[in-house]
Amino acid sequence: MFEKKSGILLIAGVGFFAFAFLSNAVVPILMYRHLPEKSVAEVVNGNVRYQFEDLAQRYPAAFERAYGTPPADPRQAHEWYNRKCAEALELGRKIYVGEGCWHCHSQFVRPVSNEDRRWGPVSKSWEYQNALQRPVLFGTRRVGPDLSREGGRRSNDWHAVHFFQPEMLSPRSPMPRYPWLFDGAPDRPNARGLALMTYVQWLGSWLESYPYYEDYAPTPIKAVAATE
Predict the structure, then answer these.
(1) What per-residue confidence (pLDDT) applies to 182?
(2) Close Cβ partners of 219 (under 8 Å, ≥ 6 residues apart)
(3) Which residues form a coiled coil (predicted)?
(4) pLDDT tens across 134-189, in order?
């Protein structure tokens, strides 16, 4: 058996599988075993809070219907926003999975082929040590771009228009429309639409070099206003 090509290929295949398992599973487990898994509430950070409060300002009526009114007291309001943001993240991930977004978008920047130049910093194991990454959505297809670093790259109104009618912003886009995330128009997202936008804006928000969208690209609303 070991003298035949098929035997050599079999041994090589098993060997590469074992090496991949050790390097991609066992080693990261040993390296990060001391890190506790964060809950959804613990992954709420200042960057995603900024985006969540931005949703409240852009779509006040929709936001109030979905989450209510924050307390007048600043300290209580801070805790309220954190709690509601965590709820939105949890629901947003469920919608992301349920709508099949993970079929066309990966969430893992690989250390090959200049991926960091296309999508951002290569993904690290510690980024997936939280409840919103269970199970992880690494993905294998990239019909659309990798979303590991999507948070903050575009404004909430950009995402609203993109979810409502993708081809308005990305001509010839194969992405389907999601009108059921809105109450009739892209400026009227419902609770599910707000939650999905919050989740997308969370992706990569934990990085120190988080790129706020004002410094990345103008929003569609600003672009339209500039032509008037």
Answers:
(1) 98
(2) 154, 155, 157, 158, 213
(3) none
(4) 999 998 889 999 999 999 999 999 999 999 999 999 999 999 999 999 999 999 99
Neighbours of 77 (CB within 10 A): 14
Band of pLDDT at residue 227, cut at 50, 70 and 90: very low
15: enclosing H helix or E strand = helix 5-21
The answer to whether 154 touches 217, Cβ cutoff 8 Å, is yes
Q: CA-CA distances (angstroms) from residue 216 to 17, 49, 114, 196?
A: 40, 19, 20, 21
Strand (E) or helix (H) holding 191: helix 191-202
Alpha-carbon torsion 181, 187, 191, 194, what sign? positive
Which CATH superfamily does the domain covering 39-226 fall into?
Cytochrome c-like domain (1.10.760.10)
Rounded CA gap, 228 and 215, in Å? 22
Give the residue among 35, 45, 178, 36 at the shortest CA–CA distance from 100: 178
Q: Distances from the Cα of 194 to the Cαs of 13, 134, 205, 218, in angstroms?
A: 46, 21, 17, 21
Q: What is the pTM of this model?
A: 0.83
Task: Look at residue 223 in the predicted model and tell me its pLDDT.
Answer: 47
pLDDT tens-place string over residues 121-138: 999 989 999 999 999 999
Specify which residues 182 forms β-bridges with: 189
Q: What sign for the dihedral angle of Cα 20, 25, 26, 32?
A: positive
The Cα 28–Cα 124 span in angstroms is 10
